[in-house]
């Protein structure tokens, strides 16, 4: 079960088109439309990405920095959820014009690496419902196959934060969204929370599900595909 | 013994109501804290007159690292309570502002204390400190500034043949630079002189935070430059017979020395030196205290004068800050406000709501703090790096260029932010500063500081949950500057600030980065931010309920 793996042929192809000097990570290079949103990359976020990608990073640092990046992606993802205006009275007796989040959201993690993001979501929304989908990709054909899914019953009425940190080919996510669609979840109600995404992975998702929104921290042809193994320590 | 002890007791009920890990983590630090004010040498029995030192107790030479109680604290603690307001109890006077609203320093008041050996200088100093009854008095003894002896001098000292009663025995240059820094309100490192080896210990005693400095020693008036630094010069004049009698009794009874040796040294060095250097310097004194430490009238007069001097220097800082003309000015360029995303706005709506439960208040505060620190971290300098990825492809990324980062929290509310800082910043060191408002004057007062050692080389995240007038934040920044932290390495991080506070801080310290999640427009007469968030510390720690 390793959906993170990039097919070998593709990786070597990318190596060729990615000489060192063009190793920029700007999303401007990839026209992916309005539904692919990248976090505003500050120096702090670039450091997180650097540490996660660095092969010499010790595992405890890796988890620490990955959790920080996950938290930032989750916080930004929550910004996409609906809210309404309201005003509250402060302890000084004055009125503050604020807003309230709407109920009716849920998270769905794609096992295994998506589970790394569950805690980050839990840390922001303590009682949010979280469903799981387990997808296994065939070692030889890289075909993704659904093994298990357990989702909230009323998921079709909810906004869904789909969690999957590393997207290479996009095959796994396509499968997962199909499962959601089978449960009558609208594309427009799905937000994919993602840390690292390849341009062609993103393109594939958009082509298949034009209403789905993708939030990522970096769009780059090379994805840190060791993420799941290093995070869970199975490498 | 000159230490002033200060105790701070958090409300016992604060830490047990909801079991947050942060409170558990900080319980130790909130103590009861005992603070000692610096008095190198005064209590060490060996420091009184160096030539009599029998080098048998080197361990006693340096000021003990153990916290000791001042004699004043031997009374029941209740006797020392200065302010009680609601649940808050202060056990000592804090240090009032020692800088003006531009953040510039006012000089410390330096008292020079001179007199012959065994004349009772130390007793006088101790009595002045006791009578002042404030913790921001530092005592510096000349004994700390004896020169390091070479081997041959060291041998002679062992045979009572080295003259410790001569100006040449002291390192006046170091003394002058030390007293000057202390007068400027900066932190200093006083050497610890080891009378057994006649060398300085590797460790230095750090002294910080003096509005009053007492400098005592037999040659205190022997250097012109030093004299110019003194605001008041006191000579303790005790009869020679009395002094000799005291020396004999002390050296023989307490230090087990031979009567002959003591007398020989007295006649050879101590007496000529007194007549030659010390007694003539009496004419430089402003006040001459006969009979030394028993002269309560003279000591009371001195204390009265010092009090008057300190009062003349004080002023209403906070009132000035709140009403200062900064209001309505554009926000300074050093202010950085976290983007008001729906989440940030929503979190504010929760934590500002007076009816929210404590559980949710704490939860959402922590979320906001985490966002704040991620935001603040990205303001530190970064450097470009080229790393090798696990996929074997080079990747040009960034790493933080700041070597070390320290958090310094302003107690109590700033402490709530420490955990969030630790969550985004591995291995961060944490310092603490306790500043409380004096309810009589409305002024902030400094009660306690514990800062990481090499703080001047670090980037400092100064933490306070809310900043209204900016008075406490300015005091904390001043403390950091006094410890030689460069102004541009300080980031003041808070959840909520008032415009006036932003302007006051930015005006006084234009290089300090101000990082916050929201800025409110007003501050009311009680110095609360409007619409504000209430008393953050009380709400977080649960000490805010009525009755």
Automatic annotation (TrEMBL), chain A:
Positions of the Phosphoribosyltransferase domain: 45-220
Coiled coil feature spans: none
InterPro entries: PRTase-like, PRTase_dom
Keywords linked to the UniProt accession: Glycosyltransferase, Transferase
Superkingdom field: Eukaryota
Pfam short name (any one): UPRTase
Single GO MF descriptor: glycosyltransferase activity
UniProt cross-references to SUPFAM superfamilies, sorted A to Z: PRTase-like
Record carries keyword Hydrolase: no
UniProt-recorded name of the protein: Uracil phosphoribosyltransferase homolog
Organism expressing this protein natively: Aplysia californica
Organism ancestry: Eukaryota, Metazoa, Spiralia, Lophotrochozoa, Mollusca
Gene it is expressed from: LOC101855379
UniProtKB/TrEMBL annotation, chain B:
Matching SUPFAM superfamilies: P-loop containing nucleoside triphosphate hydrolases (SSF52540), PRTase-like (SSF53271)
Protein keywords: ATP-binding, Kinase, Nucleotide-binding, Transferase
Signal peptide segment: none
Domain Phosphoribulokinase/uridine kinase residue range list: 110-298
Stored Pfam families: PRK (PF00485), UPRTase (PF14681)
Domain Phosphoribosyltransferase: 340-543
Composition skew (Polar residues), residue ranges: 46-59
Region feature Disordered, mapped onto this chain: 1-85
InterPro entries, per database record: P-loop_NTPase (IPR027417), PRK/URK (IPR006083), PRTase-like (IPR029057), PRTase_dom (IPR000836), Uridine_kinase-like (IPR000764)
UniProt catalytic activity: uridine + ATP = UMP + ADP + H(+); cytidine + ATP = CMP + ADP + H(+)
Protein's pathway: Pyrimidine metabolism; UMP biosynthesis via salvage pathway; UMP from uridine: step 1/1; Pyrimidine metabolism; CTP biosynthesis via salvage pathway; CTP from cytidine: step 1/3
The protein's Enzyme Commission number: 2.7.1.48
Domain of life (superkingdom): Eukaryota
Similarity section: Belongs to the uridine kinase family.
Protein name: Uridine kinase
Source lineage: Eukaryota, Metazoa, Spiralia, Lophotrochozoa, Mollusca
Name of the encoding gene: LOC101852292
């Amino acid at each position: 079960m390793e959906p993170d793996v990039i097919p070998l042929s593709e990786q070597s192809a990318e190596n060729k088109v990615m000489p060192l000097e063009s190793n920029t990570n700007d999303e401007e290079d990839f026209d992916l439309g309005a539904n692919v949103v990248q976090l505003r990359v500050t120096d702090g976020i670039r450091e997180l990405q650097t540490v996660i990608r660095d092969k010499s990073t010790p595992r405890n640092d890796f988890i620490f920095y990955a959790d920080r990046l996950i938290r930032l992606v989750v916080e930004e993802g929550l910004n996409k959820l609906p809210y309404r205006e309201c005003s509250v009275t402060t302890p000084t007796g004055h009125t503050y014009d604020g807003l309230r989040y709407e109920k009716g959201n849920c998270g769905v993690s794609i096992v295994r690496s998506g589970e790394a993001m569950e805690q980050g979501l839990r840390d922001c929304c303590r009682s949010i419902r979280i469903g799981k989908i387990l997808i296994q990709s065939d070692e030889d054909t890289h075909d993704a196959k659904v093994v298990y899914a357990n989702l909230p019953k009323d998921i079709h009425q909810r906004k869904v934060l789909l969690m999957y940190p590393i997207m290479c080919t996009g095959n796994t996510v396509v499968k997962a969204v199909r499962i959601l669609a089978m449960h009558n979840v609208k594309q427009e109600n799905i937000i994919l929370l993602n840390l690292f995404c390849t341009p062609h992975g993103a393109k594939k998702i958009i082509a298949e599900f034009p209403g789905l929104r993708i939030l990522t921290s970096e769009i780059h042809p090379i994805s840190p595909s060791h993420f799941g193994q290093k995070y869970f320590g199975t490498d | 013994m000159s230490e002033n002890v200060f105790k701070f007791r958090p409300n016992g009920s604060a830490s047990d109501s909801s079991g947050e890990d942060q409170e558990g983590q900080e319980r130790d630090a909130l103590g009861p804290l005992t603070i000692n004010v610096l008095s190198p040498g005064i209590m060490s029995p060996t420091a009184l007159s160096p030539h009599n030192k029998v080098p048998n107790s080197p361990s006693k030479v340096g000021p003990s690292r153990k916290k000791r109680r001042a004699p004043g604290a031997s009374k029941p603690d209740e006797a020392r309570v200065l302010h009680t307001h609601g649940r808050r109890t202060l056990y000592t006077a804090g240090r009032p502002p020692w800088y003006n609203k531009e953040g510039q320093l006012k000089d410390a008041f330096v008292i020079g204390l001179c007199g012959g050996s065994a004349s009772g200088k130390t007793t006088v100093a101790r009595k002045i400190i006791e009578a002042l009854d404030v913790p921001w008095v530092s005592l510096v003894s000349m004994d700390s500034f004896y020169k390091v002896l070479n081997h041959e001098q060291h041998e002679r000292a062992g045979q009572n043949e080295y003259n410790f009663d001569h100006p040449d025995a002291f390192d006046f240059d170091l003394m002058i630079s030390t007293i000057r820094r202390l007068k400027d309100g900066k932190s200093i490192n006083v050497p610890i002189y080891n009378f057994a080896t006649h060398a300085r210990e590797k460790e230095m005693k750090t002294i910080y935070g003096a509005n009053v400095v007492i400098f005592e020693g037999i040659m205190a008036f022997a250097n012109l430059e030093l004299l110019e630094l003194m605001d008041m010069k006191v000579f303790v004049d005790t009869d020679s017979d009395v002094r000799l009698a005291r020396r004999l009794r002390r050296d023989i009874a307490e230090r087990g020395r031979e009567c002959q040796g003591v007398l020989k040294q007295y006649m050879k060095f101590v007496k000529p030196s007194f007549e030659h250097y010390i007694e003539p310097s009496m004419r430089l004194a402003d006040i001459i205290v006969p009979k030394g430490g028993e002269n309560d009238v003279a000591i009371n007069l001195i204390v009265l004068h010092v009090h008057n001097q300190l009062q003349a220097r004080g002023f209403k800082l906070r009132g000035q800050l709140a009403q200062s003309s900064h209001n309505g000015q554009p926000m300074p360029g050093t202010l950085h406000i976290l983007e008001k995303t729906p989440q940030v706005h929503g979190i504010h709506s929760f934590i500002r709501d007076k009816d929210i439960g404590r559980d949710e208040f704490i939860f959402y505060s922590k979320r906001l703090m985490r966002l704040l620190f991620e935001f603040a971290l990205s303001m530190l300098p970064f450097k470009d790096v080229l790393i090798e990825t696990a996929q074997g492809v080079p990747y040009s990324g960034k790493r933080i260029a700041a070597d070390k980062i320290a958090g310094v929290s302003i107690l109590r509310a700033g402490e709530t932010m420490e955990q969030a800082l630790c969550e985004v910043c591995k291995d961060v060191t944490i310092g603490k500063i306790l500043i409380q408002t004096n309810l009589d004057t409305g002024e902030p007062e400094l009660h306690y500081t514990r800062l990481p050692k090499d703080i001047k080389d670090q980037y400092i995240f100064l933490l306070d949950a809310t900043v209204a007038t900016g008075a406490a934040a300015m005091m904390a920044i001043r403390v950091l500057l006094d410890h030689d932290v460069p102004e541009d390495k300080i980031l003041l991080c808070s959840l909520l600030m008032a415009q006036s506070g932003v302007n006051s801080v930015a005006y006084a310290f234009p290089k300090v980065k101000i990082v916050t999640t929201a800025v409110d427009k007003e501050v009311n007469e009680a110095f609360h931010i409007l619409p504000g968030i209430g008393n953050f510390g009380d709400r977080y720690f649960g000490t805010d309920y009525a009755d």
